[in-house]
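Why does residue order matter? Because the sequence determines the fold. Keep that principle in mind as you read this record.
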Amino acid sequence: MAKHEKTVVELNKAYEENEIGTRQIVYFSVGLFLLIVVTFGLMWILMLVMEDQKAEDDAATRNPVAKTKEERLPSEPRLQAAPGFGIDGPDGRVNLELKKPQAEYQELKKIWDKELAEGQKIAKDGKMTIVMLPIEAAKKEILSENLKARSGEAAEKALEETRTVISGSSAGRMRSDRIR
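Structure:
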């Protein structure tokens, strides 16, 4: 027959008393923490190795005629909420995706106001070329030059061309009507 261990049971209590060892709980907690840290580290290393392999595979199997992200976009004009919607400004492309509908006009207005105030300049062959001047600067520039007025037959011909228009009665061939 098998021997049974004698346990001390107090029959006058309605519950059974358990003895919990705090040392075992601390050992288990520290072991579990170390196991989690080691697992996290191994998973991190595995992720880095797999990303490197994917990059190598992508480089090896990349289609040489595949389109880039910009080439896959539809041609301008695009819908305002569509990827790639924006404007080309003097400082590069301004992305206006998912912005309010007035955003395009507001950006263009900023550019136009700046060009009206400072003039429009284009970088060509490493130097800035002035394409447009502010009105006041253009007036000063014109007045500083010694311009001569046309006179003679060429001036009268130019005046006559500005005062006559092509009419429908001449079937669009001649300037026949005079502006009054």
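The beta strands are 86-89, 92-95, 120-124, 127-132, 164-166, 175-178.
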